[in-house]
Write a structure and sequence with these properties.
By secondary structure, the protein is mainly beta. It binds zinc ion.
Length: 227
């Protein structure tokens, strides 16, 4: 039974109301540089972590010097977080990827998590993002023949924007699905990831199509790393 408190996600983020909290260069660092193995599980691509997680630099991000390992990626269409949106609906970005991280050793991501949210839109890619095609193809294959059990590889960096990796909003929130646990540090990237229209369409097809309703901010602040 989920216990739902006062720090739920997603929320509506208004850039002008977020508090500018400068961070040191390198406060948020993405260390993944190559495709990483994993399996499709429902709407998620779940990474198979290496045995020696302490040395798994390629699997990690760091937030203020603390290391977090990537556990899964899934995508939502439409986006769950609303940005600079003043109506109740219909102004959601078309798409949001969630990159879920937990501490080394916490393979099931039962404890505290860092989830990086990236809005993605169709356009002209400035670098080829082959893993997005692959992600959609793996989902399609699973739906078609019940496969997807064999390990595959996805490059998490393909889900990141090409620029502005030091520009993000952050706030304390929850999972947006069961069990809605309030153990998530959200990092929502300001810049948007751009992918070719065909890849975008394929991704949308395999996204989670139910966005959770916007949750009250209550006594929380949204911080931004940029002016
Ligand atoms: Zn999600």
């Amino acid at each position: 039974m989920a216990i739902i408190g006062t720090q739920q996600s997603p929320i509506k983020i208004i850039t002008g109301e977020a508090i500018f909290a400068p961070v040191d260069p390198g406060f948020l660092r993405f260390h993944y540089t190559r495709p990483l193995p994993g399996k499709v599980d429902g709407h998620n691509f779940v990474f198979d972590p290496p045995a020696d997680e302490q040395n798994a630099a390629d699997w990690s991000i760091s937030v203020d010097g603390v290391k977090w390992l990537i556990r899964q990626i899934h995508v939502h269409a439409p986006a769950e977080h609303l940005i600079d949106c003043h109506c109740a609906k219909d102004c959601a970005k078309p798409f949001e990827a969630h990159l879920v991280h937990s501490s080394p050793g916490d393979v099931q991501a039962k404890g505290t998590k860092v989830v990086v949210g990236v809005f993605i839109e169709p356009g002209t890619e400035t670098r080829e993002k082959r893993s997005l095609d692959k992600f959609a193809a793996l989902m399609a294959k699973r739906a078609g023949d019940g496969g997807g059990k064999k390990p595959k590889e996805i490059a998490p960096q393909d889900f990141l924007p090409d620029s502005g990796l030091d520009q993000f909003f952050r706030y304390q929130g929850s999972l947006t699905g069961e069990p809605y646990s309030e153990d998530v540090s959200w990092m929502v990237m300001k810049d948007i990831g751009i992918v070719e229209q065909a890849k975008f369409d394929a991704l949308v097809q395999w996204a989670k199509h139910k966005a959770r309703i916007i949750q009250p901010l209550n006594r929380r602040f949204v911080l931004k790393s940029f002016r």
